[in-house]
Amino acid sequence: MTGSGRIATLDVIRGVAVMGILLANLPGFGLPEAAYLSPLPWGGAGLDDRIAWALTFVFVEGKLRGLFSFLFGASALLVIERARAAGESEAGVHFARMTWLFLFGLAHLYLVWSGDILHHYALVGAAAFLFHRLDTHGLVIAGLCLVGVQTITGALMGIAAFASESEGLARALGGPGRADALAEVRAYRGVWLDGLAYRWAKDAGTPAVLLLAYGFETLGYMLWGMAGLRSGLLTGAWTSGRYRRWAAWTLAIGWAASAALAWATIAHGFDWRYVALGSFAGATPIRPLLIVGYACAIVLLARSGGRIVDRIAAVGRTAFSNYISTSVLMAFVFHGWGLGLFGRIGRAEMYALAPLVWGFMLLWSEPWLARYRHGPLEWLWRSLARLEWQPLRRSR
Q: Model-level pTM?
């Protein structure tokens, strides 16, 4: 715990997660949607682009989203337990937060970027409330069942991909669909209203689609995050030796299995059926290993302390503000109302933007928190959920 009652390791893990998730999101910011899972629909012919895809697939794709889901579950449980301790309505506090987060997410989805995850967390987080009274073992078992369901549906999707000749499914997974990609490029290189109209037409059903595609998995991760809080995994309560052992085994197995899936996808020329196999059927049971491994490794990083760890913790405390501001920055870089670079930068080259954005996060977050209690959007969310303006500036 810090002096403010915050759990320092949670802040550091959240900081690494919000910085790392940028690596997963960059292709979504700057390339047509079909190019997210495969480098072939837009560019991708060069060796550097394929290497960039492979590294992201093995180390990042789905893992940082899952780590964020872990932390969301842990944070939700903390808020619920603190509401109970203060004599407040647990359900009232939790569902007010989820309602406003859902609205923030919809605004982000339809006005800024189609890759929003906040509205999804709000919907799934509402369901997570039903499980918050389970003990650690109950949460782990419930999470296993939910991720098991997601694994089965992913496997069925993989089987369907090999048995189907669906043109729509092929386009979504990086198969033929050049006309769709060109339409998306034209929309996002145009004025802001062009991109807005395109998003509203294409993403109207996104909340339902994400809920069906990832809902079970996300809920399972949130419940495991609650278990991680109660077991001490996420709070730094384990011994360093235990964290090292868990990190070593989970990362070794997870990275090896992910590398095998990446190799199979590349060896078959990014055939959309193997993209489905790798990104859905094969990846789902592997992600939990890497999420836990990353969490253990980051706790060990947090224990080392130092200025950079303090800066990362500050990024974690302002994760909501950093997440949204990153989307605005990337929209400026790639969309027509800004620099208009959508589809003009290759997959490998765009990763050069990541250190610049990380530098921005690390530079502003700690000085802001030295003067203010919360990040700007964290403060707004908290105030709206409580229907009362919360104190922001720190007392002198």
A: 0.93
